[in-house]
Design brief:
By secondary structure, this protein is an alpha+beta fold. 45% of the residues lie in helices and 24% in strands. The N and C termini lie far apart (93 Å).
């Protein structure tokens, strides 16, 4: 049968077609008398929903079968007189079971005929599945909201326009715990968040926002100032998504309060500084005898020169030239003693972590002067192989000098089993291929096996009978905190080569 023939059959058989739709519809259909609201007919779906027979339903009152949850819906007679009424919900369909009603939506229509009385038509749709889905979605939303409230991170999403204006779509309630302002404060006026950013970090935050374009991820740590004036550290991670051809960027972010982590890191830094200071003081204790001997030499020389001057004065005569020479000798020895004291005081002082630009070559020379008495005591020869040009680095000088002293002390101790003529330590400085500054300390001592080299910088590892195993671990912490690295390798023939690198100062 052709489509045209099927269309002709539809036109020739509207009553048969209506009967088929009535019987096969997936929704319940009830036909009533508009005047009395008595049920005239009901399709099989009505019988299935209500668990009633056709005979039970026909002739019964529609108002007994269908109830409205809202009084404002009015009576069915009024609704039928107004034409067609649509509802999404708010009605209940009675079943044959006691006090059991089915939630439904209803469409009410008044049908007019040219040769018969008008009829009322109730099209009833079962809302149970839809309501259950809605309740599941609400429960899921409630559970998600509780989860978002319980986590320590603030989850948010926003839209960023080409002008850089941010419009928050959602902010989890954790934002109030972090900033002291409620969610509405930022949703109503998104630009106020920039006012929450600490003044010291405004510029870096602006740069951060300016990078939120296209499809990329950005992260920044900065400070915010809470409503009560307290400053807190936060970490913000943002994923950007921008559809092709769109001028708007969708942002999905996580804001984490890292104040406790920052404070813990600062406390750890202070403890490491105290431990490093203790290590330096301990090193001075080990070098005390050699330093006392080194200081005794200029002091003894000063005393001798002073005695000679006194005798010259007692003899009388013209002793001006001789006394001038003695005075210069006394001055030179006093400066020598003062230089030893200066190096010692600088080394054992408590550093405040202030970094400055220093020449590594000069720093190595100071360390060499400081440990020269120890080298003499150990019978070691120290050779300097320093770069000709200055190698400037931005560091905490006391901390880096501590690393050099630790490495030199270990080198001297490794020489004790060697003959006097074979006790050599060489300190070198150079530029690496990567553009870093490298300091190397090579000794001719007993060396260390390749198996133990990897453990050399681990805490509490030591090859000494009385060692604590902290000196090299502290050295690694210091170097890594300066952006460098430290390592050791066995020498080519004997001994050990210890090296560390530091980033070259950008102004060099």
């Amino acid at each position: 049968m052709s489509a045209a023939q099927e269309g002709s059959l539809w036109l020739r058989s509207p009553i048969e077609t209506a009967q088929a739709l009535f019987q096969e519809s997936g929704d319940a259909i009830v036909v009533v008398d508009p005047a009395t609201l008595r049920i005239i007919d009901a399709n099989p779906v009505v019988l299935k929903f209500t668990e009633m027979t056709h005979e039970d339903l026909v002739g019964s009152d529609m108002t007994d079968l269908l109830k409205s949850d809202e009084q404002k819906m009015g009576c069915f007679s009024t609704l039928l007189e107004t034409g067609t009424f649509h509802s999404r919900a708010g009605f209940r369909l009675r079943t044959n079971r006691r006090d059991h009603w089915i939630p439904v939506s209803v469409t009410i229509s008044r049908m007019h005929f040219s040769d018969a009385q008008p009829l009322g038509l109730f099209l009833i749709h079962d809302m149970r599945e839809i309501n259950e889905a809605k309740h599941r979605a609400e429960r899921t939303a409630d559970e998600l909201q509780r989860v978002l409230q319980s986590v320590s991170d603030c989850v948010w999403n926003a839209i960023l326009d080409p002008a850089g204006q941010l419009q928050y779509v959602y902010l989890s309630p954790v934002i109030e715990r972090i900033t002291g302002y409620d969610v509405a404060h930022f949703l109503d006026e998104p630009s106020v968040y920039r006012e929450v950013v600490h003044p010291n970090h405004q510029s870096v935050y602006q740069d951060f926002v300016s990078r939120l374009r296209g499809n990329r991820s950005e992260q920044l740590e900065y400070q915010v100032r809470r409503a009560d004036g307290e400053s807190r550290w936060v970490s913000e991670h943002v994923n950007c998504s921008q559809a092709e051809g769109s001028h708007l960027t969708h942002l999905f972010g996580v804001l984490t309060d890292i104040t406790s982590r920052k404070r813990s890191a600062e406390r750890l830094r202070q403890k490491e500084a105290e431990l490093a200071h203790f290590s330096r003081v301990s090193a001075m204790g080990e070098m005390a005898a050699a330093l006392a001997h080194e200081l005794n030499q200029p002091l003894y020389a000063i005393a001798n020169f002073a005695g000679t001057a006194e005798k010259l004065l007692e003899t009388g005569g013209d002793t001006t030239a001789r006394l001038g020479d003695i005075n210069r000798q006394i001055s030179g020895q006093a400066l020598r003693a003062g230089e030893i004291i200066r190096c010692l005081r600088a080394f054992v002082s408590k550093t405040k972590g202030v970094r400055s630009t220093v020449d590594v070559n000069a720093m190595v020379r100071d360390s060499h002067k400081l440990l020269l008495p120890v080298a003499r005591d150990e019978g070691a020869t120290v050779r300097l192989a320093l770069a000709e040009a200055p190698l400037n680095v931005n560091v905490d000088q006391v901390q880096i000098q501590q690393v050099v002293v630790n490495l030199l002390t270990n080198a001297f101790e490794s020489l004790r089993s060697k003959d006097a003529e074979n006790r050599v330590v060489e300190i070198g400085t150079a530029m690496t291929e990567d553009g870093d500054v490298q300091v190397s300390i090579k000794d001719s001592g007993v060396g260390i096996s390749r198996e133990l080299v990897g453990k050399l910088f681990e805490p509490f590892f030591t090859t000494k009978e009385s060692g604590m195993g902290m000196g090299m671990a502290i050295s690694r912490t210091i170097i890594e905190s300066h952006g460098g690295r430290i390592w050791a390798t066995p020498g080519d023939e004997c001994g050990t080569v210890a090296c560390f690198t530091l980033p070259l100062h950008q102004g060099s």
